[in-house]
Write a structure and sequence with these properties.
CATH class: Alpha Beta
Number of helices: 5
Oligomer: single chain
CATH superfamily: Haem-degrading domain
Shape: globular
Order of helices and strands: HHEEHHEEH
CATH topology: Beta-Lactamase
Distance between the termini: 30 Å
CATH architecture: 2-Layer Sandwich
Helix content: 40-55%
Length: 177
């Protein structure tokens, strides 16, 4: 039996910790590029065996798409992946939480992952963009589709954590993530 309470606690902690000191076009490009590089490295070393590609999107809730990429082999990625991206981003926009956290919360309540309807995907892979000190909520989402929901989520979280650490070091502070 899956321990949803432990997963929910871990995911909630991630969201509390992973708040960027700043966010702009360069930060979006850096995070998106880091996700792309991590996938390619895992693919080359065989860690992503059987997976031929992913799609990445970084969107602001104001409507701007700051980063968008398809990585891997074309036959394995396509319109369905972009549909998953948008549905995951819709979930983050609606709930202000990662799509994975929303999904685990639904499962803990005995609900199906499709409970929210066709325009939402409560599957891992989209994470809210929070700015440290901003109390108004998430400003956007970083999303990946193409791997398992756990791996999609991990790729995004690892890239955000690395970006926070790099930004903190550039600003002369201690790493925060």
């Amino acid at each position: 039996m899956t321990d949803y309470a432990a997963q929910i606690a871990e995911l909630t902690d991630q969201e509390a910790r992973l708040r960027l000191p700043t966010f702009d076009f360069d930060a979006a490009f850096g995070i998106g590029s880091a996700i792309r590089s991590a996938f390619l490295q895992a693919h080359e070393t065989g860690c992503a065996s059987g997976v031929e590609g992913i799609v990445i999107s970084i969107q602001l809730f104001s409507g701007h798409t700051l980063f968008s990429a398809a990585v891997g082999h074309a036959p394995s990625i396509g319109p369905d992946n972009w549909g998953w991206i948008q549905r995951k981003v819709n979930t983050v926009r609606r709930f202000g939480k990662s799509s994975f956290l929303v999904g685990r919360t639904l499962l803990a309540k005995g609900r199906d992952l499709d409970y929210l309807g066709p325009e939402y995907a409560a599957h891992g892979g989209a994470f809210p963009i929070h700015i440290r000190g901003n109390t108004t909520g998430a400003i956007g989402a970083i999303a990946v589709s193409g791997l398992s929901q756990e791996e999609d989520h991990r790729l995004v979280v690892d890239a955000i954590a690395a970006a926070i650490q790099a930004m903190s070091l550039r600003q002369g502070g201690e790493p925060k993530a």
